[in-house]
Design a protein that fits this description.
Layout (H helix, E strand, L loop, with lengths): L7 H6 L20 H10 L2 H6 L1 H14 L5 E2 L6 H8 L1 E4 L3 E4 L6 H6 L5 H4 L1 H14 L5 E6 L1 H10 L7 H9 L1 H25 L3 E6 L7 H18 L3 E2 L2 E2 L2 E5 L6 H5 L5 E3 L6 H8 L4 E3 L11 H15 L8 E2 L12 H15 L3
Parallel strand pairs: 1-4, 4-5, 5-8, 8-9, 9-10, 10-11
Antiparallel strand pairs: 2-3, 6-7
């Protein structure tokens, strides 16, 4: 199958020449869009929205109808994987995701098994197929998963946490149990991403949201090592096209060289890391993605445009030795005005276009 008509995103990830710096936004299909909120209302709740392939397709396409973005990202949630493991995912109003059966007992951890995506996550794969058909080869589709460690944080804590005390206590007191969870998660994430690729995802991202809260040694042992295991097991090409892999560790700027050595194609960089310095550190090993502070989108149109230009200028010219995908340093806030996103995307395209 041929590449999409607009393949700037894929070319940037593979460090090939681009017409301009491509843009997509983490959480680009979300609550800042009135049309998303209307679809979510029709679904009844967030989990119903995730598990309905038709509605997941609808919200995936909504930001592309508004903005000239260069990639779509599958609408789903990272916690679908532990939900498929039988932990009982639910969303408490105003409290975020929760698990009915968090992993606290040794027997439950020993019994944990990676789910079969075709059997237990079919709704996600059906959504991937439906989105690919709807995109009609216009722009690439990104698949994704949480990292093994990030998933483990929620699985052990039973939900979000301010300090992740329970999982960190397990890390120090019973590292054998945490390693057991991470081994299962690594297999689950590998299987899940490969199933998305076979269903039609043309690039994949691993969201390591909580890896950056670990100590230097713990990050390498409990997060990076398992992401590398996932990357090594990924399908590298499908339909005769390379399928690039992006790794995003929020707060991971100190480990750029180590992340680049995992075999990924690109590193997502949050707003606390200097993008130009990141490029110098990784050289031509990987592409970079990022890294506007999402809070900059609450400023004036002029300020948003100025910050977008600053990020582009900081990365420097795309000289063929390093690709750049413009993104936020984390997900877009639900309180962002869509007008600011329009300004951002148009500014990036105009300022980076090669004459």
């Amino acid at each position: 199958m041929a590449r999409p008509k607009n393949d700037n995103f894929l070319r940037a990830l593979l460090r090939e020449p681009v017409d301009y710096t491509p843009t997509w936004l983490m959480r680009q299909a979300g609550r800042y869009l009135p049309e998303y909120n209307e679809t979510r209302r029709r679904a009844g709740n967030f989990l119903n929205l995730c598990k309905n392939p038709g509605l997941a397709c609808e919200v995936t396409l909504q930001p592309l109808a508004r903005f000239p973005l260069d990639a779509a990202i599958l609408f789903s949630d990272i916690l679908t994987v532990p939900d498929a493991m039988g932990l009982g995912l639910y969303f408490a109003e105003g409290e975020g995701p929760k698990f009915e059966r968090p992993l606290r007992e040794e027997w439950a951890i020993r019994d944990l098994a990676a789910p079969d995506p075709d059997a237990h996550l079919r709704y996600v794969l059906d959504a991937v197929r439906e989105i690919r058909r709807a995109l009609d080869n216009s722009v690439p589709l990104i698949g994704f998963s949480g990292s093994p460690f990030t998933l483990a944080c929620y699985m052990v804590e039973g939900g979000g946490s301010d300090d992740f005390r329970t999982v960190k206590t397990m890390l120090y007191d019973r590292p054998d149990l945490l390693h057991r969870i991470l081994e299962v998660n690594a297999q689950a994430v590998t299987d899940y991403l490969n199933a998305q690729i076979e269903a039609g995802a043309q690039a994949v991202q691993i969201f390591d949201t909580w890896g950056g809260m670990l100590s230097h040694a713990a990050y390498r042992e409990f997060s990076l090592a398992y992401m590398q295991r996932v990357i090594e097991g990924l399908i590298k090409s499908h339909d005769d096209e390379r399928v690039p892999c992006i790794v995003f560790t929020k707060g991971g700027g100190q480990w750029l060289e180590a992340i680049a050595a995992t075999g990924c194609d690109a590193i997502g960089v949050d707003w606390t890391t200097d993008l130009g310095e990141a490029r110098r550190r990784v050289g031509d090993k990987v592409a970079l993605q990022g890294n506007l502070d999402p809070m900059a989108l609450f400023a004036s149109n002029e300020a948003v445009a100025g910050e977008a230009r600053r990020v582009l200028d900081n990365f420097g010219p795309a000289d063929g030795k390093g690709g750049h995908v413009f993104n936020l340093g984390h997900g877009i806030s639900q309180y962002t005005a869509p007008e600011r996103v329009s300004v951002l995307v148009e500014t990036v395209r105009q300022h980076s276009r090669h004459s």
